[in-house]
Automatic annotation (TrEMBL):
A molecular-function term among this protein's GO annotations: helicase activity
Entry keyword annotation includes Isomerase: yes
Domain UvrD-like helicase C-terminal, first and last residues per copy: 291-546
Residues that hold ATP according to the record: 31-38
Catalyzed chemical reaction(s): ATP + H2O = ADP + phosphate + H(+); Couples ATP hydrolysis with the unwinding of duplex DNA by translocating in the 3'-5' direction
Protein name: DNA 3'-5' helicase
Keywords: ATP-binding, Helicase, Hydrolase, Isomerase, Nucleotide-binding
PANTHER family documented for this protein: ATP-DEPENDENT DNA HELICASE UVRD2 (PTHR11070:SF69), UVRD / RECB / PCRA DNA HELICASE FAMILY MEMBER (PTHR11070)
Source species, domain of life: Bacteria
Length: 658
């Protein structure tokens, strides 16, 4: 912990310091990846608190992901400013909603709907519309899109026709199902994930007394990753602010990657127009990455088009030279995964900690082949950060059971409060089938047992550290850990989607699967969508501090015909490729020869669900007929990813939401 408020400023450069010292009025930081935006705002809050200018409880810092919020809380603690709220929009809204619901509406806040897709299915059935599984999922996604963009059922067809090129065909039917779905939710007194923001906005809009209460509580607002704020989130922010302007936003228009939730960088780019008295700071020193990585990132953005691109800032690396980026073409996906795993093993052998390495891909279904290859190579890994443990079904179930038991407290005959804590946990877990002895053999049963045993060990450690702690304390600790992603597992290589890697950094980053169809994803058709894919790759590239590897494979499996091409975004960047738009080759690097190791790896499998394929048509698509097409998959993945993350933050298991 820095000794004084001034010592908090020591770790900042002059521009970052300007941000930290501008504690009143609107502040906008426009800057590229790795320039210390998040650091500047974290230090700003810490400085303000330590200098006695900001009340910790009157500051609300909003970040974009669950993990980012957890990291910010951790940083603030380290800087001696614990107690500041750092949350996602959803979690901040949910808390307020829970608090104000009894007064605004009466009774308790309705539960979040557990099986949303089922509710949509029921709505469709009531409208006498038959949907198969894929259609059902698409309709659900459409309803979600409509809600995040604040489109009511009646307006849905017209809005889609006007604003979207990827319009679904039966918008009238979807609108009908959507209206029925809303009706069913009201009838059953449940709300869905999107309602959390919508209802908060509605209440703050209608009830001035409640809005005033919130405004008295929070005086200072800080928003990270502001380029990805949606109109609805902006509305909420405006309601929180009222007529005040103590708002500090930081963002990078070139990292706008959530436009499918309605986000646009316009709020960031128009900030000065809206707040003419704003302090605007630009940061260009890149503290994160080597000149090689920065060069590549600049080159990638050099080809970008659109409004965001007009505002890009050339980054200047502050670091020593590092290795050149590696570009590798593989014959097929398993070979790519194996090659990646081998390189990762070499890096670990050379002293790079596994936790400092990440493999990033476009859609989550790409992870499996990498999980396999890393397991084969004996490399520990964790899926999407360290959240794997808390994502496991049995851990989520156990969490629900423990929470229930903690709420029931001493009244629950199952628990004897005098028993201080692991025995209580064992008692609750025994209702989930946990036994003190592990089941024989390995496999799913054993894995499940191991997870629950880890929870008991955690309870033991917790009690040691905090004698007299209650079950409620433990539940709070578990929530905190789940939020901060401190899983009680070994530090492993991170496997994550590009979307969820936003704001994070690793020593070594492997960007895999960089083919046309994946990057940009087939779903991206319009120019704007292609540009967003390019920004997504930019986000990926700029996650690397030192080692950066870009790879792709020419076919999916050893037997298949191939025909894949490297991503168009690599044109002009990778050595030997024709430059796009007449630009020179940038980025340096070594292109390795294709690794075309053809091996048969058993039967063809569905690339989405992994089922063995027998039908020739299915084999051609590498997808069984039950699974969605690439296009659906992409949309679904993006929404699911985002939602799963947000859902965790508000204590809802992801499966309840989608
Ligand atoms: P992104 O756009 O990816 O979110 P960012 O602009 O938020 O990036 P940070 O994550 O805040 O950047 O900082 C990137 C890295 O550079 C971090 O490791 C941070 O600690 C380091 N860094 C930032 N500013 C400085 C500085 N003034 N001195 C030393 N290191 C710094
Ligand atoms: Mg950041």
């Amino acid at each position: 912990v820095p000794e004084s408020a001034d010592a908090v400023l020591d770790g900042l450069d002059p521009e970052q310091r300007e941000v930290a010292l501008a504690l009143h009025g609107p502040v906008c930081v426009l800057a590229g990846a790795g320039t210390g935006k998040t650091r500047a705002i974290t230090h700003r809050i810490a400085y303000g608190v330590r200098a006695g200018i900001l009340q910790p409880t009157s500051v609300l810092a909003v970040t974009f992901t669950n993990r980012a919020a957890g990291e910010m809380r951790g940083r603030l603690r380290q800087l001696g400013a614990a107690g500041v709220q750092a949350r996602t929009f959803h979690s901040a809204a949910l808390r307020q909603l829970q608090y104000f619901w009894p007064k605004a509406v009466g009774g308790e806040l309705p539960r979040l709907v557990e099986r949303k897709v089922q509710l949509v299915a029921e709505a469709a059935a009531r409208c006498r519309i038959r949907l198969d599984r894929n259609e059902l999922r698409d309709v659900t996604s459409e309803i979600e899109w409509a809600k995040v963009t604040q489109t009511v059922p009646a307006d849905y067809p017209a809005v889609v026709a006007k604003t979207r090129r990827d319009a679904p065909r039966d918008t009238a039917e979807i609108s009908q199902i959507y209206a029925m779905y809303e009706q069913l939710k009201r009838d059953r007194s449940v709300i869905d994930f999107e309602d959390v923001l919508l209802l908060t906005v509605a209440i703050l809009q209608d009830r001035h007394d409640i809005a005033d209460h919130v405004r008295r509580q929070y005086q200072h607002f800080v928003v990270d990753e502001y380029q990805d704020v949606s109109p609805l989130q902006q509305r909420l922010l405006d309601l929180w602010l009222g007529d005040r302007d103590n708002l500090c936003v930081v963002g990078d228009a070139s990292q706008t990657i959530y436009s499918f939730t309605g986000a646009t960088p316009e709020h960031l780019l128009n900030f000065r127009t809206r707040h003419p008295n704003a302090t605007v700071v630009k940061l260009v020193r890149d503290y994160r990455s080597t000149p090689q990585v920065v060069h590549l990132a600049n080159g990638l953005l050099g080809q970008a088009r659109g409004r965001a691109a007009e505002h890009r800032l050339e980054l200047v690396s502050q670091r020593e030279k590092g290795p050149e980026a590696a570009y590798t073409e593989y014959g097929d996906e398993p070979a790519e995964a194996e090659g990646t795993a081998r390189r990762i093993r070499d890096l670990i052998a050379a002293g790079v900690p596994a936790g400092e390495i990440a493999v990033l891909y476009r859609v989550n279904s790409q992870s499996e082949v990498y999980e396999q290859a890393l397991s084969d190579a004996g490399v520990p890994y964790q899926l999407r950060g360290a959240e794997r443990f808390f994502e496991r079904a049995e851990v989520r179930e156990a969490g629900v059971a423990l929470r229930g038991a903690a709420r029931a407290g001493g009244n629950d005959s199952l628990l004897d409060d005098a028993e201080g804590l692991p025995s209580q946990v064992r008692a609750v877990l025994s209702t989930k089938g946990w036994t003190t002895e592990p089941p024989a053999g390995s496999g799913a049963m054993r894995d499940r047992w191991e997870s629950l045993a880890a929870l008991v060990r955690l309870a033991e450690d917790f009690e040691q550290a905090k004698p007299g702690a209650t079950l409620s304390d433990l539940v709070a600790e578990l929530d905190e850990r789940a939020a901060a992603q401190h899983a009680p597992t070994v530090q492993g290589v991170t496997l994550a989607s590009l979307h969820s890697a936003k704001g994070l950094e690793w020593d070594a980053v492997f960007l895999v699967g960089l083919t046309e169809g994946m990057m940009p994803i087939t779903y991206a058709r319009t120019d704007e969508q292609i540009e967003e894919e390019r920004r997504l790759l930019y986000v990926g590239v700029t996650r690397a501090r030192f080692h950066l590897s870009l790879s792709w494979s020419l076919s999916r499996s050893p037997g298949s015909r191939g025909g894949r091409r490297p991503s168009r975004f690599l044109n002009g960047l990778r050595p030997g490729s024709a430059a796009l738009g007449g630009r020179g080759t940038v980025g340096g690097g070594v292109e390795r020869p294709a690794v075309t190791k053809r091996r048969r790896r058993g039967p063809a499998l569905c690339r989405v669900c992994g089922k063995t394929l027998t039908d020739a048509g299915e084999m051609k698509l590498m997808r069984c007929e039950d699974c969605p097409s690439d296009m659906d998959e992409a949309l679904y993945e993006r929404l699911r990813d985002w939602r799963a993350d947000q859902a965790k933050e508000i204590g809802q298991p992801a499966y309840c939401v989608f």
